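re: ur question from yesterday

yeah so i grabbed the chain u mentioned. its 644 aa long if i counted rite. heres the sequnce exactly as i have it in my notes:
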Amino acid sequence: MIRGKVKRRIMTIFICCCCIFALILGKLGYEQIFHHDEIMEKAMNLWERDFTVAGLRGSILDKNGNVLAHDIPSTSIMVVPAQIVDAHSTAQKLAEVLGADEDKIYETITKRVSTQKIQPEGRLISDDKAIKLEEMDLPGVYLVQDSLRYYPNQSYLAQVLGFTGIDNQGLAGLELQYDEILSAKSGALNIPFDAKGHNVELYNESYEAPGRGMDVKLTIDSQIQDIVERELNNLMQRYHPENALAVAMDPKTGEILAMVSKPDFDPNHYEDYDSDIYNRNLPIWKSYEPGSTFKSVTFASALDLNLFDMFKDTYMDKGYEMVGGARIKSWRAGGHGLQTFLQVLENSSNPGFVEIGRRLGLDNLYSYVTNFGFGSKTGIDLPGESTGIMFKKEVMGEVEQATVAFGQGLSVTPIQLVTAFSAIVNGGTLYEPYITKAIEDPLTHDTIVEFQPTVKRQIISKETSDKMRYALESVVANGGGKQAYIEGYRIGGKTGTAQKAVNGVYLSNEYILSMISAAPMEDPQIVLYIAADAPKNDILYGGTVIGPIIKNCMADILPYLEVEKTEDQLPKKYVWGDVNRITVDDFIGKSKKEVSQEGLLFEFSGEGDTVIDQLPEAGTVLDEGGKVWITLGNDDVGETIGAN
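ran it thru and got these structure tokens back, copy pasting raw so excuse formatting
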């Protein structure tokens, strides 16, 4: 009986085991038949090693499509530690080719991981190194496609463009601002390996194609940028300031046409420079007292309220004004005497602007200054913008009101000043500045997003703006901006000579020299601001140092913008010490004896008695003492005669 029970139990257990085994087989069969693809995918994920294939980051272009930053396909090194046969030998050979530390390479290639990048030594290697490694055919060492960010113009527009890091991610400037738009999806080369790291030849490799980032087109005009960069490089070499900056804007839209910050750096090798250089885009970051350039804002505000007739009403500048017990002096000893208010602006009279500030009153002055955008960010689409510093209205007393009126005691950024000045000359409209024109498809170049001008508010009336254009042109023709005067072009502007303040203390003999300008004043197409911090020069005035630089820029920019010369401009007022300007006569067809013009030198070449050619041509404007070459024939005999 006991034996029968044992047999039944054994049979029951056997039947249960058979059922369990049948269920397992059934389950395996079911999974193999109905879930085969899913199981294989999971298995391949375990077997495959991913070799990243970098996508191409989008390019950054100027408004005309010129490339400012783009990706260049390159090569990087990746290793599979399990496949390396002789780690010491492999490390030695890699170190020799890469010029790297052998111990560091050995530590990298012996890590207990499936795949490992060698970086930074193995990132973006040269073609020569890639060829050498390919010829060595080292087990476990793979060459994979990567991309190198390249800035073809080196330091050109450096702080604006910024740079990318080792993984091609944006770290500064527009590269950071538009990192998500510029970034490309990486692809991958998937190779199946077994647990020991050997290739599984039964299955094929798979490839996921990399993507491309969107292109970013800027409002920057490379022609204008070239000109401004050239002149600021000359400024740095001649005057050796601590730093210098420039901003050019289209006053009708707020588009940034050029932006320069010196000293600059090469984004291709940003790691070689101090972070204070590459992290500070001075036109939007630097904040300082604007000095007399700010007087254009105060003057426009007073004109808008009809507080004086700038041609008829007068102010007596006796050399100083007393404000709250403080003596505010004129830059000219003894003052400028009796002036019209237009002359107050031309002569940049601080006492005169104290009077204008009084007429405005605190409420109006504060309202206009803040409406022009001072004390708040402009909203430009660049990282790192500062707000500047503006007094709170409740703490402004009589002295603060007076000093703000002539540009002292407050702190502004260059982009704030350029934006406000653009409103003064464009009809009174304040625009939000912007530097991005469009986002484009990198293959078709179709526009995906296009950025439009953004109007913030109307600050002054069109009538006031018309008056200001005349007044600012008069400053260049008759006042402190004469060094920027160009025959045939109506240029307006205001100079500034601001004493530097550090920790609330003004430094002796250290100034920020600047000038803000617009042209042509009959229809302004460009506003240009240039400033130099602590230039090494005996003549510390914005007009004498920055004025000629503005002139050099405008002399090339205005013809590029197809601005035609005009005779309808304010004549330049000459004072003692100014160089006279002379328009060259037409001498072609005249005899040699008739060739004469007061103030000019002549050099003759050739034989004969009749002028057949001249250089420069008639109508060219030269400084007094300039030379004209006269051709009398085909021979090269010459003589020089002095000015009459």
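noticed a couple things. Confidence is low (pLDDT under 50) at residues 635-644. also The CA atoms of residues 120 and 166 lie 8 Å apart.
anyway ttyl
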